[in-house]
């Protein structure tokens, strides 16, 4: 091995260590951003859909018991919403819902998507996304509007919020079908 080959190998090794350090730093920064978004989204839940006691920030699981949304805490405590009628529907099984649909006093929906933990992110209740319903008027004469869902946690390639318009199907708290279409009558 020549001196230039040894020097070249050291440079390559130093570059790969730098690349690994950069990737780890970027991943840590991304995880911190996601955690901050999660905290802000849970603050919205606390403000708009408060629990009887405690905070959505400390919930480890959500489930539906009979017709009520139940938040489970690490100490085993179970609480419902301060206003139980705000829970309107779900998709998936009551013990492990995939989504939970809430509705505020103004008739605006909020969807909580639940799933598995994302690597390295401390998210007690396994919240994948929270989407807010937004409506845009289409025609004043027919009083119809277009329903959009704006993600609070997921972003596009440039970091912009994601908004999409899709029909959504749920099971109401009473067990009936609960549909939200893209076009709705006000």
TrEMBL record:
GO CC annotations on file: cytosol
UniProt xrefs under InterPro entries: Malate_synth_sf, Malate_synthG, MSG_insertion
Annotated Malate synthase G alpha-beta insertion domain residues: 33-103
Domain of life: Bacteria
Gene Ontology molecular function: any one: magnesium ion binding
GO biological process: glyoxylate catabolic process; glyoxylate cycle
PANTHER family: MALATE SYNTHASE G
UniProt name for this protein: Malate synthase
Native organism: Vibrio nigripulchritudo SOn1
């Amino acid at each position: 091995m020549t001196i230039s080959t040894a020097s070249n190998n050291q440079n390559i090794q130093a570059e790969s260590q730098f690349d690994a350090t950069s990737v780890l730093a970027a991943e840590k920064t991304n995880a911190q951003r996601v955690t901050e978004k999660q905290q802000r989204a849970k603050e919205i839940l606390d403000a708009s859909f408060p629990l009887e006691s405690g905070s959505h920030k400390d919930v480890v699981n959500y489930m539906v018991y009979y017709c009520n949304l139940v938040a489970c805490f690490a100490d085993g405590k179970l609480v419902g919403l301060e206003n139980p009628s705000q829970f309107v529907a779900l998709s998936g099984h009551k013990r492990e819902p995939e989504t939970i649909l809430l509705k505020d006093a103004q008739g605006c929906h909020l969807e909580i998507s639940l799933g598995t933990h994302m690597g390295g992110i401390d998210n007690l209740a396994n919240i994948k996304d929270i989407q807010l319903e937004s409506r845009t008027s289409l025609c004043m004469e027919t009083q119809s509007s277009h329903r959009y869902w704006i993600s609070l946690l997921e972003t596009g390639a440039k970091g912009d919020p994601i908004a999409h318009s899709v029909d959504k199907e749920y099971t109401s708290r009473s067990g009936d079908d609960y549909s939200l279409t893209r076009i709705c009558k006000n």
